[in-house]
Predict the structure.
Amino acid sequence: MSYLPFFEPNVPETVTRFHHASNDNADRLVVKKAERRLYLMRDNQPLRSYHIALGFQPIGRKTREGDGRTPEGRYLIDRRNDRSRFHKALHISYPSTVDRWRAERRGEPPGGMILIHGQPNGKNRSKPIEDDWTLGCIAVSNREIDEIWSLTVDGTPIEILP
């Protein structure tokens, strides 16, 4: 597997550019949209791999709010929510400054609230929803979001590839 090194020129100064995770944690996440896979990485080696569901219009870069696309680019896991309307959620730092600039040039809102999350609460499903069904998020099973949650920390870089 070949992955680009992490570099995001628009990371806020309050966030360190280099993430130092423990030996048990992932030091980066990589999403390959075409493969419908999320990889937890450590030292450029996959630790875990998960089947994912994406936004309902998964092909292409997210350009505006409501387009149903999952963004592409380099971001951070910047916060987590265990009281989400889904079984746990990790927030992705989309939109970046560049994403906002592109949307502004088109006169459209860039969208936001992009998450890696489990299944919707209260649906009592034993299996994850199949196919691409989110509004632009990355969905996994509840068991998988529990594992991803435990193997990442806030500030972990994520690269979302076509």
Observations:
- The chain has two helices and eight strands.
- Helices lie at 97-106, 142-150.
- Residues 91 and 113 are 7 Å apart (CA to CA).
- Residues 97-106 form the longest helix (10 residues).
